[in-house]
Design brief:
The complex is a heterodimer of chains A (about 500) and B (about 450). Chain A is an alpha/beta fold. An eight-stranded parallel sheet of chain A has the order 3-5-8-10-13-16-18-20, covered by helices on one side. Chain A has a six-stranded parallel beta barrel with strand order 9-11-14-17-15-12. Chain B contains nine helices and 22 strands. A ten-stranded mixed sheet of chain B has the order 4-3-7-10-12-14-16-18-20-22, with helices on one face. In chain B, strand 3 and strand 4 form a beta hairpin. Chain B is globular and about 70 Å long. The termini of chain B are far apart. Classes of the chains: A alpha/beta (about 500), B alpha/beta (about 450). Chains A and B meet through strand 18, strand 19 and strand 20 of A and strand 21 and strand 22 of B.
Chain lengths: ~500, ~450
């Protein structure tokens, strides 16, 4: 087994109390056991619980170099000192972090449904409505099919093409093995381990994710999508993504897909870091449609995500586009740190909460460089018992001469049980900066629906039409195929919210 | 107590001293009220900058400073006796309070229509006036406003204005709160209750400090004012609040309002400088068809700090509210605005607007704004907007091209920016009075007690 250099006992961090109290482990220590933990390295998953051993296990399992293990441990030790944030306007039962299993290998084929017949018919009906090709349905539903709609071959073709241009697009684990210098240079440089509670947790136990590197001056010829690495395993609940765009490069990255994904893990805490150097552009689009829980609000994914992009170089640009329709709890604030002069940050978001979903989402734009510009367009739709909050921060620091921001946050309410809230935080320290913020909250006009009814549209179609119009400014930022799917997704997600 | 607050030990001894001192004059109801309020204050502590509602204003230094109540003033300074204290409105009732106590020699109650009740001091404490002060303490929520609790704990010389049903008070009722210099830090806790019964109308002016009177400068002061308004059905109240106490003052003011059906509450608030000025509005729209309009202006320089904080709760359907706050920030001043509109679940057909616009005139000025909407009903129209920027270069150029010097041009534009707020005061005399105050702030900095040159004076910001 190709293992990284084990630590000598002297280098090993002092064992935490639990370990010291455990004679078995002490024995192991004396035997200079390579990994300093009890769990069998060959086993596929960890029992629930989180301690330093868990972190060491994950790191070892991924054959990570020592520096990365240290990096994880540093994050973990800091996490222990932190408390879960409570400022978000979301309400969920306390999470027992010791009851979560932090590492599970992908399910073996034997455990999976053997054919589409075994899959929940409701899920299939949704696929039908979204117009997902038959071949893909099986993959999405987690059916054990070998050649998943040729995704492997598709992915391979892409990979060779990208390789010619020097573009690296692989799973995070692969990147750690093959491009450790790049990972080491940029990992945590945008979202440090200590950034916040969930980022610290992710830094300690992240399972896998994506890594993208675009060399100098290269324009990535295609949209990079996680969709094409669907088999790169169950990317898991603690996903870590790192995208680096060198000078003058350009990349568009798509994350997620419109189809509801089958997922076993309730707690998700992902971290995404983007680095754009001089004149580079990164466009990051997300469609998130994880399980939102049933009609009564039972179950559903808790999604605590830290996404941040650093516009390090002059004239660099980072653009976030998100369509958030899934998850029971969403806690997500994709941000841009505009360090380079003339850099640009954008945030386009459509978030929908139906039934009992709760979302506290928004963005942060931090203007540091001169003439930096940012645009925020946020559209929130709340239906059923959904509660939605836009929470955004725009900061213009002292040196941000001539900085500009335009923010627009609109909320649409459907039904008298839902809520829509807007909490912007605006902080300007430079008199040459210019900032505008507007927000509105309203419901669909009865006269608008009446007008469309008159022209023969059913109320449901009328609402879909109006909602799509409401979100148009965001949808047009999405890559073409995504935009079409996103529209369908909204109408499906809103089913039952009207009337 | 959460970790975001600090224990206010300095006030404990002062409260004991005060309770002993007034043990003879305070009736039982008042003693109970004070003790309960002090317990609430103790439980809440002084909010620190990590407290979500107090992010921009740090008053924790107060926790360590012993602040005795301002002493009874001796001789009334002659500069005061000669002063007319009018905002362009010469007639009508004027009530002057020195160091928190009513000063009859400077006051006049002429021009009040029959039936209007105006009581203060000992009369207010009197058992026989229980009916007249029954709303006292029912609007300001001392369980969430620590400083309102502190104010209630030190309640002694309160002031009640009661306008009976159907009565229209034509002249504005003006009040003025001044401190005489004492050479040591002191505290005053002014307390006002205004009750406008059914179909009545009144304009009420509260002024804290007059910076142009040199005699009053000097001596750190902590002013902790609470004003409660109760509006009966279809009552109309115009409230004007001016804070002009100068840079040695910490000012915390809470205006708490309860509105019944179809009532109108219009407020104009001017913050013209202070070391720290926290200006809070808490409005409960409890009757259908009620309307509330808040307009605020803050014109700051040097190290002045103003934090406007509003909460408008639409508790019933068919309410309407608007908020317009504007800031002009020069020097190293700091202007913050936090406005929250809460629309309750069944408050359908609510219309709420909120706007905060800030002009930054200098390099060191900092503006922060948090316009917030919290909405639980669906059939509503709620909007908010915020802008922060500097004066329009093109407008300046236009004026310069017409041979207007840069300083005048700048002042003209600032005036135009501010006038939207002052005009909300309604009566032309009052509007003129407010505009004169702002003009003196912008154009005649020599009348500032500190006498430092002002960045408003036309020198272009670097």
């Amino acid at each position: 087994m190709n293992t990284p250099n084990p630590m000598t006992p002297a280098e090993r961090p002092a064992p935490i109390d639990k370990i010291a109290l455990n004679p078995e482990i002490d024995d192991l220590n004396q035997q200079d056991y390579k990994w300093g933990f009890v769990t069998d390295i060959e086993q596929d998953s960890l029992p629930p619980g989180l301690n330093e051993d868990t972190v060491r296990f994950i790191s070892a399992k991924k054959k990570e170099p020592e520096w990365l293990l240290e990096w994880r441990l540093k994050a973990f030790r800091h996490w222990l000192t932190m408390t879960e944030p409570t400022w978000a306007l979301v309400d969920y039962p306390a999470i027992d972090y010791q009851a979560v299993s932090y590492f599970a290998a992908p399910k073996s084929d034997a455990d999976k449904p053997q054919s589409l017949d075994e899959v929940d018919p409701e899920l299939l009906a949704t696929y039908e409505k979204l117009g997902i090709p038959l071949a893909e349905r099986a993959a999405l539903a987690g059916v054990a099919v070998d050649a998943v709609f040729d995704s492997v071959s598709v992915a391979t073709t892409f990979k060779s093409k990208l390789g010619e241009l020097g573009i690296v697009f692989c799973s995070f684990s692969e990147a750690v093995q093959e491009h450790p210098e790049l990972v080491r240079k940029y990992l945590g440089s945008v979202v440090p381990q200590k950034d916040n509670f969930f980022a610290a947790l992710n830094s300690a136990v992240f399972s896998d994710g994506s890594f993208v590197y675009i060399p100098k001056g290269v324009r990535c010829p295609m949209e990079l999508s996680t969709y094409f690495r669907i088999n790169a395993a169950n990317t898991g609940q603690f996903e870590r993504t790192l995208i680096v765009a060198e000078e003058g490069s350009h990349v568009s990255y798509l994350e997620g897909c419109t189809a509801p994904m089958r997922d076993e893990n309730q707690l998700h805490a992902a971290v995404v870091e983007l680095v754009a150097l001089d004149d580079a552009t990164i466009k990051y689009s997300t469609v998130q449609n994880w399980y939102p829980g049933d009609k009564n609000g039972v179950g559903g994914i808790y999604n605590f995500v830290t996404k941040r992009g650093a516009c390090r170089g002059a004239r660099s640009k980072i653009s976030w586009t998100q369509v958030e329709t899934g998850s029971a709890i969403t806690w997500k604030y994709p941000s841009c740190v505009l360090q380079g002069d003339d850099s640009v940050g954008e945030f386009y978001s459509v978030a929908l909460t139906n039934n009992w979903q709760q979302a506290d989402t928004g963005t942060k734009m931090i203007h540091i460089g001169k003439n930096t510009r940012s645009t925020i367009i946020s559209k929130g739709i709340s239906a059923g018992h959904g509660q939605q909050t836009y929470r955004g921060s725009v900061r213009m620091l002292k040196g941000a001469d001539g900085a500009r921001n335009y923010s627009q946050c609109d909320s649409l309410l459907m039904g008298d049980q839902c809520g829509a809230h807007t909490f912007p935080y605006i902080d300007v320290k430079n008199p040459t900066a210019h900032l505008e913020h507007e927000a509105s909250t309203s419901r669909i006009g009865e006269d608008q629906i009446f007008y469309l009814n008159q022209r023969g549209l059913s109320t449901e179609d009328a609402v879909n039409l109006i909602v799509n119009g409401f979100c148009k400014e965001v949808f047009r930022e999405l890559p073409m195929e995504f935009a079409v799917e996103a529209q369908k997704l909204l109408s499906v997600s809103l089913e039952g919210a009207v009337g | 107590m959460s970790t975001a607050t600090v224990q206010a030990t300095a006030f404990e001894a002062e409260f004991d001293r005060f309770a002993k001192l007034t043990a003879d004059t305070a009736p039982a109801w008042l003693r109970t009220m004070r003790h309960e309020a002090f317990e609430q204050f103790r439980a809440q502590g002084i909010p620190g900058p990590k407290h979500e509602e107090w992010l921009y204003t740090n008053l924790t230094p107060l926790a360590r400073t012993a602040l005795p109540l301002a002493p009874r003033p001796g001789e009334v300074p002659t500069s005061l006796a000669a002063h007319r204290f009018t905002l362009g409105v010469e007639t009508g009732p004027r009530l002057v309070f020195l160091n928190g106590r009513f000063e009859p020699t400077l006051s006049s109650t002429s021009g009040l229509p029959d039936g209007v009740v105006l009581i203060h001091g000992a009369a207010l404490r009197d058992e026989e006036h229980a009916e007249l002060r029954k709303e006292l303490g029912t609007v300001a929520d001392t369980s969430v406003h620590p400083f309102a609790a502190l104010n209630t704990a030190f309640l002694n010389d309160g002031f009640v204005l009661r306008v009976p049903a159907g009565v229209v008070v034509d002249e504005p009722v003006q009040t003025l709160f001044l401190h005489t210099p004492t050479g040591q830090p002191v505290a005053v806790h002014p307390r006002i209750l205004v009750v406008a019964e059914e179909n009545s109308q009144v304009t009420f002016v509260e002024r804290y400090g007059i910076n142009c009177i040199g005699a009053l400068a000097g001596g750190t002061c902590f002013t902790n004012a609470v004003t409660e308004y109760v509006l009966g059905q279809s009552a109309r109240v115009k409230a004007v609040r001016i804070q002009h106490e100068g840079t040695s003052t910490y000012h915390v003011g809470l205006t708490a309002v309860r509105q019944a059906r179809d009532s109108h509450f219009d407020a104009v608030t001017l913050s013209l400088g202070g070391a720290i000025d926290r200006n809070e509005f808490s409005i409960d729209i409890d009757g259908e068809g009620a309307e509330c309009n808040l307009a605020g202006l803050y014109v700051l320089n040097r190290n002045e700090h103003v934090d406007n904080h509003t909460v408008v709760r639409h508790n019933v359907p068919h309410g309407r509210s608007s908020q317009l706050f504007k800031g002009v920030l020069a020097g190293k001043s700091h202007g913050a605005f936090t406005g929250r509109v809460i629309v309750a679940k069944h408050a359908q057909k609510t219309i709420a607007e909120q706007a905060n616009h800030t002009l930054l005139l200098s390099d060191g000025a900092v503006a922060e704004t948090r316009p917030q909407l919290e909405i639980y009903a669906d059939d509503v129209q709620c909007t908010h907007g915020a802008t922060i920027g500097r004066l329009d270069e093109e407008a300046l150029y236009y004026l310069r091209a017409r041979a207007i010097d840069p300083g005048t041009a700048r002042n003209m534009l600032v005036h135009a920016f501010a006038s939207e707020v002052t005009e909300a005061a309604g009566s032309p005399q009052l509007v003129e009075g407010l505009e004169r105050l702002i003009a003196s702030r912008l154009e005649r900095p020599s009348e500032d007690p500190d006498g430092t040159t002002s960045a408003f004076r036309g020198e272009s910001p670097a």
